Amino acid sequence: MRVAVIDIGSYSCRLSIGSIENELEIIYEEGNITALSEGVKSSGLLKKEKMEYTIGVLKDYINKAKEFKVDSIVAVGTQALRIAKNAQEFISMAKESLGLEVKVISPEEEGRYSFLAVGYSLKPEGKFCIIDQGGGSTEYVCGQDLMPEKVVSLPFGIVNLTEEFIHNDPPLNYELESLKNFLDEQIREVKEDCQTLVGLGGTITTIAAIEYGVFPYKGHMVHGKRLSLDSVMFWLETLSSMKEEQRIKSFPQIEPKRAKVIIPGIVIFYRSMVMFGKKEILVSDWGLKEGIIVDEYLKRKKEKEKGSE
User: Fold this and answer.
1) How far apart are CA 92 and CA 221, in angstroms?
2) What's the CA gap between 11 and 258, in Å, rounded?
3) Which residues contact 177 (CB under 8 A, 6 or more apart)?
4) Residues β-bridged to residue 26
5) Sequential DSSP letters for 134-152
6) Residue 230 Rama label (left phi>0; alpha psi -120 to 50; beta)
7) Cα–Cα 20 to 30 A to 64, which of 189, 191, 233, 256?
8) What backbone torsions phi and psi does residue 200 show, to the nearest 5 degrees?
9) What is the pLDDT averaged over residues 251-278?
10) Count of CB atoms within 10 A of residue 69's CB?
11) Is 100 helix (H, G, I), strand (E, B) or coil?
């Protein structure tokens, strides 16, 4: 059986296709920056051109899923579609033009799927906490094995933090300090004692790709890598001293559309590591969409085991 999962995020839209027969295997992945939530913080509305662009990406994903002869397509929406006043318009567009049912999931569901993906693929020992940083929200999920014990979703991500705090290119010192102070207050409320901190999302995987010289991007070459606090601080200082255009020219790992918003993303992980008292962070390329595939795989496995009893 093959399952395609589409994650319609606030900043990027991503596709994973998994084979879940006797073993679980991710056989295809693709991602595009669609910036669906751009301007939502100020207007409360998804922009028409962003909706149309995202629908075009979804159409390509559906065609790709058909090429792989998938048995089902699951499409989920996160923070942008949770908060935008006209989210239903986008959901209707997907249904009417593509025949695609988009399910808007809760922050808790999002966090649990991401935790499941990390627990299944990286198997961190003891208690671990994941930081699933997105475009419009960031989930902190702590637990052990495949069992999340605490899920907290904070309503900030790289898009709304950039819009609120970063108004200069490169950012000014006071903008970065204001951002750090804001994040420290938020993270202080969610920090937990844990053995391992795990980072998810395009920012941390991009930094890992730069650190380890991975280009073009290959998820399996980043998945499971570790970044020290010193490295995260180094890349924050390096990239925040550059103009957006210079970041793109200097580091091919940084997607042009990500260059503008990457700084708040790095600050989220930097301040989280400091507040959690961790000298390193484990990087996961797997997240929400892989978690949904893992969940389906484990359900099928359980059913098969019951049937053979």
Assistant:
1) 38
2) 9
3) none
4) 18
5) -SS-EEEEEEETTEEEEEE
6) alpha
7) 256
8) -125, 155
9) 97
10) 8
11) coil
